[in-house]
Amino acid sequence: xxxxxxxxxxxxxxxxxxxxxxxxxxxxxxxxxxxxxxxxxxxxxxxxxxxxxxxxxxxxxxxxxxxxxxxxxxxxxxxxxxxxxxxxxxxxxxxxxxxxxxxxxxxxxxxxxxxxxxxxxxxxxxxxxxxxxxxxxxxxxxxxxxxxxxxxxxxxxxxxxxxxxxxxxxxxxxxxxxxxxxxxxxxxxxxxxxxxxxxxxxxxxxxxxxxxxxxxxxxxxxxxxxxxxxxxxxxxxxxxxxxxxxxxxxxxxxxxxxxxxxxxxxxxxxxxxxxxxxxxxxxxxxxxxxxxxxxxxx
Length: 298
Prior knowledge:
Elements: H1 3-16, H2 19-26, H3 30-44, E1 49-51, E2 56-58, H4 60-84, E3 92-98, H5 100-117, E4 121-127, E5 141-145, E6 154-161, E7 163-167, H6 169-175, E8 198-204, E9 207-213, H7 222-230, E10 236-239, H8 240-248, E11 253-255, E12 264-270, H9 278-293
Parallel strand pairs: 3-4, 3-5
Antiparallel strand pairs: 1-2, 5-12, 6-12, 7-10, 7-11, 8-9
Helix pairs in contact: 1-2, 1-3, 1-4, 2-3
GO molecular function: DNA-binding transcription factor activity; sequence-specific DNA binding
Keywords: DNA-binding, Transcription, Transcription regulation
GO biological process, one term: DNA-templated transcription
């Protein structure tokens, strides 16, 4: 083992905050990971990690070494990718995280087409509506929808994305349509969100308007909120790609169109040190092209 290997083991242990997690990620034994980190500490003459029976803790010097080691490993990987990708077809494994509804409604057809186009690529796709830690959890790329948090990740826009307020014709017949966003307080609402506090966003005279909402049914999956709206249970606010088939089929209609907020975006995000990755670039290009073909649904 050389110094770069020991750095890689140490960084993986800090990312996972356990020897077991690092061993699983690297395909090594827990004992080997522990032994190599101990050897690294001996060669440096400092304690990098504090071990307890339950968890690891990083010392102050360990944190400094971790930041430097990660930058070195990122530079090495970027250099390798820059050289090895020249003139080659995309190949290798790609770990992808994407929102549940986007995955089931769009990636389910796009991914097979991508794999057919690039036979040397394999994909591990995880559908989850939580915001994953791309680097810490070992993903290569993630699909994100809406406003992005500030981060060091590279973000590429692959499609615009509209949010619409919609109801079933049956609900409209029984309850009428809200005329302004404030009227929503007098209607039965079907919030889609991942926290106890959910807000819907509108625009009035070019100014953003936020409406806190609650309802009989709050779900963390847009397709369930859509189906509840189709059943006439209330008003919902969802991305167009989730409700497009229902709108085209007349099972849902939009309301509050004059207050629709400006479009946001669907992004592919990935770590800075993966900019030279041929397979990530191919995936981003393919997804952008596929979204362009399906543009009427965004």
